[in-house]
Queue: 3 jobs
Job 1
Amino acid sequence: MAAFSSDVMITDEKLTQRVMQGDQDAFRLLFERYRTLLYRFCSLMLGNHTIAEDVYQEAFIALYRACRQGEVIHNVRSYLLTVARRRCLNHLRSKGRYVPLDDDVPLVYELNLDAIDLSEVLREALLKIPAQYRETFLLFEIEGYSYKEVAACLDVSSDIVRNRIYRAKKALQKILDPLLDRGATGTTEL
Amino acid sequence: MDAMNLQESIIALLQGDLTDKGAVNDLLQALAKSQEGQAAVVRHISLMRKFHVMGSSISPSPAADASLLAQITQIENNEMSPSAAPPEANSAEWLRKSFSSRSFVVGILLSLIAGMGVGWALRPAYKSFLGTGVSGSSAIVMDSSSISHRIVDKQIVDDNAAVHSQIPERNQADSLSKNFNVRNGVRDKEERKGSGNRENNVRPAPQVKKSGGLNVLFPNGGERFKKGSMLNIKWQGVADTTPIVVQVSPDNGKTWSLIAKGILTPPLHWRAPNNSPDQGGYLVKVSEENAAGVLPLLMQQVRHDTVLNIPTLSKDGTLLFLPDYGGRITVWDTQTWRLIQKLEGHSKSILHVTVSPDNSTIASTSLDGTVRVWDWQTGRQLHQIAGKGKVLQISWVVVFSSTGDTLAIGNDDGTVTFLDTRSGKELLTFQPFDEAIRSLSYSADGKQLLITSTNKGSGIFDAQTGLLIRRFADHELIANSMTMSQDGTLAITGSFDGTVRFWDVATGRLIRSIQYFGGDKIGRVILSPDGQFLAVGGFGRDVLLVDPSTGAVLATLPLAVADGRIGAWPIFSPDSHSLIVTHESDILKWRLDINRDVSDDVWSIH
C-alpha cells in the first residue's frame, strides 16, 4: 500500500494537528510520507537493517507522543531526522563504531573487493567514513536536501555542511577508486 | 593543475560550490586538456548515480511497518486515552477513605483479583460519582483487564439511577476526570456532559469518539422519550458562528430527516412527534451546514491486476465486489483489504455486479452475453440466463431488489427483466426505453427503479409494475448514470454529453445543468446515503465531490493514472464517511472528513 502525491494532500502541519486530537489515520498518512526516507537514512547510517528498523520506529513513536502531548511540530521531516540521527549516533558510539572526525586520520580502508553486490560495496564504503560525514552525505546526496536544509537538520552552518559533503565524497572516491580502476580502463563505469 | 587538485575541483564544481567564474574557467580548460580529468568527472558522476540507485532500493519491511502501527495503537490505548491512569497512581489517597459495605465487597473481590499482580486504585471520586449510599470505594480497577471492565460496567449499570440523579457539577466533573479510571470513553463523555438532562433514563456506556470537533451531547444513546415530549438536542465543539444542520433518523441511520438548519447555538428544542412509531432506533446527527470544509484523506490504494469496472458494496460496507475486464469478480474485505474470494466463469469482461441485501448472493452481467447468479462464498453458480438485445445479446446492468427476492436486469434491447432469485425464473419484462439500458438502480425505499438509456432518456418507474412515474427531458447523448436522494425529491443524471443534471422529481423540472469536466463524458453520478455529497466520475478525470444542493464542487479526488479511456467509478460507504473509487486497476479509498457527529447509540420514542 503506498500513498501517492496529489493536489489534495494536506500539509504536515495540519496532519500533526489531527494527530494531536488522536486521529490515527492522520498519523498513518505522515508515516506513509516519511517511512522510506527515514528507514533509508537509518539503514545507511547504521549498516544494520534490524537496528535501523528499531531506530526508525522509535522516531515515529517519538513523533506520535510529541503530537499527542500537544507539541507543535512545524517540520515533521526535520523532526524525524533529528530524532533518528541522534539515536543512530548514540548507537554507533555505544557500539564503538563511531569514527571520530579527524582530518589527519588517513582514510585508508580495506574494502571487500570480492563482494559482487555493488549495493553492498557502496554501503560498506559509507560505513567506512566518519559518521558525521556520512549523515551529511546521506541527507545531501541520497535524500536530495539543499545545503540549507541539511544545515537546519544538523544544526550546523551551511559552510560546515559544504565542507563535510566535500570531504565525504573525497573519502568515498578514495575508498572506491580501487574498485573503479579494477580490471577496467579509467573511464569505465562500475 | 595536478590530479589531486583536479579531483577536488571537480567535486566542488559538481556540488555547485565553485562559483568564481575565473576558477570555473580554469577548471574547464584543464578538463579539456586532460583526459584523466574528464574521466574523473565521469567517474564521479557515475559514482554518485550508483549511490542514488542504491538508496532508492532501500525500504522498510511491511512487518516493521505493521509492528510500528500496532505500537502506536497500543500507546494510544494505554497512555493517551482518558481512562489511562498514570503508572504512579496515588494509592494512598483511596486507602484513607471510608468504605461502604457495597463497595467494600466489590473491593474485596477486586483485591483478590489484584493478587494476579496488576492493579489500579479506583479513586474515591468514582464513589462520589456513583452517588447514593456509596460513601467510599475500595474498588480496584485494573488496566486493560477485561475482568475489571466487566466489573466497572456492572457498577455503572447498577447505579444508573443514582448516576443520573446526582450528575456532578462541571467543575467537580473536571476534577473527577483526572483521577477517574474507567474504560475508554465513558468518563470522557460524562465529564463533558456537565449538568446533563433529567430526561435520561437507562444509558449504555458510549463509544470512544474518534476525532475532536463537533460532538453530540444529548440525546446520545439509551434515552427514552414520550411521544410529544420536548427534547433539548445539544452539541458542542464548534464556534457559535458555525451554522449547524440537525437531522434525526428513526431507523438507526438508514434514513435521515432534516429537522433544522442554520442553528448557531444549542440546544435545539425538538418535539418528539406524536405519530412517531414506537421504536428504539433513533439517532440524531449534527453537522456543519457549510460542507465546504470537507477534506478527503486518501487512506488506501490497492492495485488490482487488471482493469476494473463499477464496484458494489455490501449493505454494511464491509465487503467490496469488483468486476474486472478479465471476467472475474473479486471480493475484498474493506477493513483489512484482504482478498476473500475470486469468482471465475464469465469468459469476457464483467460489466456489472450486484449483491443481495443479506450478502449471500451476487449477480453479474458480462460481455459474454450471460447473466449469472452466484453463491459467492462457495463460488457456486446458482443460475445462468442469456442476455437480451437487438444488436448485442447482452444485459448491461443488474440489481437486487431491497428484499433480495427479485433481480432486475437491464438489457441491450431496452427491456428490464425481473428474475426470481431463488428459482431463476423470469417474472416480468417491461420496456422503459427502445434502446439499451445503461443504468438501473432501486430507490432507497425499494419501490421505484431509476433507469437511463443509450437513447439519452432517463426516468423513474414503478418497481412492481414497470409503469412510468416520472420521465426527465433527454440529454444530448447517452444518459449514463442516475441517482436519487433518499427522500425521493432530487434526482441527478450524468451523460456522455458532459452534463450533470439536477431534477425536481415531483415536477420533473430541471433545476440545474453543469459541465464539470469541460464537456467530457460523465461516467457515474452517485449521492452519498446521507445526502451530503454527490460523487461525479468521468473518464480519466479526477473524481469530484459536489454539494448536491448547489452543484458546487467541494473537493477533487485525484486518480492514480490519467487514462481517458477508462471510467472512474465512485461508490460511498453506507455511513457516507468513505468513498471508494475504482479506476483502471486501482482501488482508492478516501475518508471524507467533515465536521459532524451522530449519537453514540440509539435512543427511543414511546
Note: DSSP finds eleven helices and 37 strands in chain B.
Job 2
Amino acid sequence: MDFEKIKESCEKIRMPSDMKKRLKEKCNAAEAPERNISRQCQFDVRLVMACVCCLLIVLGIGLKYGNILEKKPPIAEETTTQTQNTETTLFEFLTDAESTVIQIIETVAESSRQEETTVTQTQSSTDEPIVSQLETTREGYVDSEDVQGVPPWTLDMCDLDKLKRAKASAETMSEEEYREFLNENKYWDVEGCFYFPEEYLAFTESDLYIPVVNEGVAEILWMNYTPEYESINVGISFDERNAFRFYIDISGKRETYFRDYSYMYRYKKTFQKGNITADIFKTKLIYREDWAWEGLAVDLIVDGQEMAVRTATEMRDENFEKYFEQIKFVKIKDWI
Amino acid sequence: MHRISEKNALGIEKAIDAYGDMLFRVCLVMLKNETDAEDAVQDTFLKYIQKAPEFANSEHEKAWLLKVASNNCKNMLRTRKRESHLYVDNLNDATYDIEIDSVAEILMEIPEKFRLVLSLYYVENYRVNEIAQIIGKTPSAVKMRLQKGRKLFDEKYRKEFG
C-alpha cells in the first residue's frame, strides 16, 4: 500500500473562497471592536477631564466672586443677612461642588492607574512561555507509554484465566465491539494466541508485540500464508504461553515507512525446514534518525527468494540471549 | 517575535491565507463535515486573535494553530454526537464544491485518532515527535496510532480497490 496516495488525495481539499472571505470578515469584526472600545475609553476619559477642568474654572470664578461679595459693606441688615445667607448657601454649594470635583478627579486618577496596571499585567502574562498558553486535552484512553523503566513482564504478572475468558467472549463480538473491547481493556490481539496487557508490550512499526519473559523457550508456533494480503504470518513464542506474531510481505515491495531505515545485527541464527529458511537475529534498528532500538528481526527465505524484512521489536530483557539460543521450529502449518 | 496584537487588520488575513487551507483540511478530515470544519477553523482564528500569542517563527505559529484546531475538533466531536457515515455521504452533496475522492473518503472512515495522525504525517509532513507535541501524546503513542491507522486504512483500501 502506497500511503502517499493519502497525501495526493487530501492536498486537493481546499477551503472554498467564499468561506475564506466570510472568515476574514468575521475575524476583522472580532478585532475591530477592541480597537473601537479602547479609543472610546480614551475619548471618555478625555471628556471627563475636560468637564472637570471647566468645572474647576467655574468654581474658581465662583469663589473669586464669592470673596468680592464678602468684602462689600452691608446695605441693610436684612439685605446683609440675606446676602450672607445667600453667600453661605452659595459657599456651601460651591464647597459641595468642590468636594464632588475632587472626588471625580480622584476617581479618574484611580481608573487611569488601574488601566495601567491591567496593561502591565497583560504584558507580563504574554511574556510567559508559549507552552503554557497551549491548550491541552487528555482523552480518557491511555496509550502505551515509553517502555523504558517498565519491568520485564513475567507470567506471574498476567492473569491468564482472565485473558482466556476475555478471548472466549471476544469471539462472539462484532468487529466494532471487539475493537472497543481491546481499547477499553488495553489488550492486543495476538492472532491465534493470547491477549496481552498493552502496558507490557513494546510497540513497533509492524504488527509485532512481544512480552519479554525471564525464562522460557522460544519456538515458532505457526506460519501461514494469507494470499489476500500477500503476506506470511509467523508466530513465535518464547514459551508455550507467550507469543508474538508478524507479517512478512512477499509481494516484493517494502512498506514505505521502512524506506529510510537501516539496521545492523548483532548475531543471527538460521533455521531451515523444507524450502523455508528463517534468519532470526538480534538487531539494532535505526529509523529515520529519530529513534533507534534494539530488537528481534526476521528474514524469511522461501524457495531461495528472500522476503522483505518486516519486523523487529524492542528488547528489554537482558536474558534474551539465553532464549535466543533455544529457538526452534515446532509447529509449522503446511501452507505451501 | 511578533505579536498579533501589534499587527494591523491585514495580519489576520495573511494568516488565513497562509494557514486556512491546511486547517480546513485537517478539520474536515477530523469532523467529516464542511460546516463543522468551518466552525472549527473560525474558532481557531478567533482564539488566535484573542490570545495574541508570540511565536518564534512561522513553524511555531503553524503548530500552535494546528494544536488549537485539533482540540476544537475533539471538543466538537465530544459534544456533537453524530454518526460518521451520514456526513461522509453528504460530503459530495455539500453546498461547497469541495473535492473529496475515494481515498480521502476511506481515510475519513477510520477512527478519528488514527486519521488525524495519518493526516499530519502524510499530508502535512510532520515527524513523529512534532505530531506528539501537537496532539499532546508521547512519540510512542503516535507511532502506535500511525501503525494501526495504516493497517486500518490498508484493510479498507484493499476492500474497496482489491
Note: Helices of chain B lie at 9-31, 34-51, 58-79, 84-90, 102-109, 112-123, 128-135, 139-161.
Job 3
Amino acid sequence: KKCTLCVDRIYDEALPVEERQPACVMTCPTSARSFGDLDDPDSKVSRLVRERNGQQSMPELGYNPVNHYLPPRPKAHAEIERSSAPASLAHRLKGWLGKSVGR
Amino acid sequence: MHPALSVIFFTVASGAGFGLVMVTIVLDLLGGVPGLGATGTLVAAFTGVILATAGLLASTLHLANPKNAWRAFFRFRSSWLSREAVFSVLFYPTMLLYMLGLWMTGGAAQSAWTALAGLLALVLAVAAVFATGMIYASLRTIPQWNSPLVPANYLLLSLASGAVCLTVVVALAQGQAEMVAMLALVLLSAAAVLKAIYFFWIGKPQGPTINTAVGMTRGRMRLLESGQSSDSFLNKEFGYQASAKRIGQLRLVVYLFGFIAPFVLIMQLIRTEAALLAPLAVLLLLTGLLAERWLFFAEARHVVNLFYGRQSC
C-alpha cells in the first residue's frame, strides 16, 4: 500500500498539534525526517530545503515529487570539537586503526 | 520487467485480431478484398473478432483481483488502460453492425451504412491497439517504453500480422491471394524496419542514473548493501533480468521466425500459389511475435532498480 503521509493524523483535530505529523517523522530516532508545508516559504521544511539545498529524486522524469532529500552535511560538530587534554597514545592508536580498516 | 505470459498472449492475439479486422475493412472500403467475395470477407472479419476476443479474455488472467475489473471502465479521462477497455467494448456493436451489413448487402462498396459501420469499427480497432501501446509508452519510469516507437510498433505489428492472417484466409478460400500477399509483404517489411529502429534506440544509454536517483551527482556511486536479505515484489517484478545470451537468441528468433521466414514463404506463395504456405507463415509469425513481446517486457528496466544496484536504467 502506498504512503498517505498519515493523512488521518495530520488533519486530526483531536490530536495535539505537535502530534499531527506522519508516524515515521515522529518515530525517527535521529530526527532525519521533517514534515511541513512546502508551499509556505516560511515553514520549517521550506527553510530546510532552501538552506541545505534539498533535492528531488530523479527530477528529469518530470514528476515533480513533493518530498525533497537534504544532502549529507560535513562531519558533525561534535567530532570537530576536541577535548582540551591530548588523548593517550593508546586511544589515538585505536582511533587511527578504526578509521583505516575499510569495510 | 517480469514478462507475464497472459499479457504476452493477449497483446499478440488481440493485435492480430484487430489487425485482421483493420486490413479487411480498409480493403473492403477500397472496393472489396481482392480474392474474396462477401462470404469470404465475412469469414475474415469473424476470424478477426474471434482472435481479438480470445486475446481480451486472456488478459483477465493476469489480474490478481478480477472482481474489481469492471472499475477499469470508469477512468477514461486519465487512464490508457481504461481507454483500451472502452474502445474494445465499443468495437463489438459496430463490428456486429458491419458484419450484418456484409451478410445483408455484400460489402461496403454496395451499401453506405455498411461502409459507415465498417469505418467506425476500423477507427475503434485502431484506437484500441494504439491505447494498448500507450499503456506502456505513458510510463516515464521505464525508459525503454517511454517512446512513440512503442505504440507505432504495436500498430504496425498488428497490421502486419493481420495482413498475413488475411493472406491465410484468402489462400484457404482458394482465391487469388497475390494482392493481399503483397500487402502483407509491405507491412512485414515496415514492421521489421521499425522493430530494428526500436532495438537500436533501446541500446543507447538513456534515462536516470544512480546519481540522479540518489542526488549525489559528483563522483561515482555504487550500492554496497541493499539492506534486505531476501527478494521482494520490487525485485521480482521490476528487477527481472534476462541474460544477454538469452536476449540475443530471442532477437534472432524474432527476426528469423517473425519477419524473414514469413516474408520468404509469402513470396513463394505469390510465385507458386501453394495455399499451405500461408498457414505455415502465420504460425512462424506468431511464434516470432510471442518472442518479440517477451523481449519487450524482459528488456525493460524500471528506475526503481537504481535503488537496487543498477548504475543506469
Note: Chain A touches chain B through eleven residues (CB under 8 Å).
